[in-house]
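Blinded run. Sample ID left blank on purpose so nobody reads anything into the name before looking at the predicted structure. Input follows.
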Amino acid sequence: MDVTTTERSAARAVWFTGPRQAELLAEEVRRPGPEEVLVRGVASLVSAGTEMIVYRGETRSRLETDMPTSAGEYPFPIKFSYQIVGEVEEAGERSGFAVGDRVFAYHPHQSRFTMACGRVGGGLLAPSGRTLLFAVPDALDNDQAVFANLFGVALTCLLDVPVRIGDCVAVAGLGVVGSFAGHFARKTAGRLILVDPLASRRERAAWIGADAVVHPDDAAAAIEEHTEGRGVDIYIEASGAPRALQSAIEGTGKEGTVAVLAYYGGNKPVSLTLAPEFHIRRLKIVSSQNAMVGSGLQPRWDTERRMGVVMEQLATVDTARLISHRFPFERAPEAYRLLDEHADEAFGVVLDYGGEA
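Blinded prediction complete.
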């Protein structure tokens, strides 16, 4: 079939039109070309990390929102998010997909969209040659598939900073990403200590099976107890709180590693006291970011391989217990207000598209 790209259909998408202002705006969606697909949104997950930083207007540079699927102007109005599950409604002849296939896309919240199926270029968040659209295996339901990106963020961290058998590990920040990081670390860690100031998140983390789940005020004592005074081998900072990064430096043992998994945003200055622990203990601080793995792994661990592992491993996780709220797509602005104003109540927040056209 000769697919024309001039015919268009109507859709709606979430746009940030100002600080803490989310709106559903009309979109025109063109029909797919030979190597593209037209996708109908089924469900998407609101990220409590980078996406909320953009929503609040806490970015400092357009590079922080520079993905091929984004649209708009920095800082506002902008269309920016990156985790949606949909169904292929129309497939280009060389797309590799068929009508009815389920896909996971690094694309903003949108009822319908057209997207390339191969590798695409990009900026800081999506380097050149990154694939942004993936088939969802039958083994995953939609409630699992919407977590693919955040699960991949945690996986990438554990590739950047592997946990050896018997290592003592601490994870600060028990949001979705921190919980997934704890889940991966538990597979090989000798001792695992989870840290979060919110009692609701500490209780929700019971599924991970940590040796201790504590308030930040009690973290130092828990680390002292479970490492026999050595400090942890790896401390994963997934909270985005500067004080948590300081505590990670203080709680990490000799020649240990602090993995900074959280994204702090361009407008959040971080002041650290490095003496004496950082210097005396010869610590390493490693940045982890989902666009690519650390040095030495790139030839083998590209996006496709990592997403394959994500899909395989996600099938073993009961993500339903991680979903605290569901909103119909037309009520998306309420989802952002909830995450912004009531972080103690919200966890995994899903947008359901239903019959959205």
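Unblinding after everyone has recorded impressions. Residues 1-6 have pLDDT under 50 and may be disordered.
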